[in-house]
Amino acid sequence: MAVNPEVAGRSYPPSPPYVVSRAKIAEFAKAVGATDEVHFDPAVARERGYADVIAPPTMAVMISQQGDANVMADPEAGIDFSRLVHGEQGFEHHRPLVAGDEVQATTTIEKVRQAGGHSMVTMGTQIATLDGEVVTSATSVVVIRGDEA
What we know:
20% of the residues lie in helices and 33% in strands. By secondary structure, it is of the alpha+beta class.
């Protein structure tokens, strides 16, 4: 079954607040092999002009996917998660995520198109502080495989 093209342009409520902590940053940095001390040592981060340790840039995907989850749960979208393949991911970082940030992800379905019997869904997600400062703009494309003939 194809994804409902009528959901293009639909925006979803923000995800629950996500508190960016030193511990979460350190865990993520270790998991991805980021060794720069700016991710672990607050003194190093302050020397470089940050209020606290900063997250590796790819940590934004964890928060972005919380916003994307609203899309996946929308029955009107018609997305069969069991047929989903991640196609593309991009980020525009306006500033690093810093320990102490409290952020939310708000996702909009930018485009739905059909290609080769599959549905391609482009989502835009804004990761912003609770007072509205956009920290990261993310774009994700997912492919929903068509029915096998």
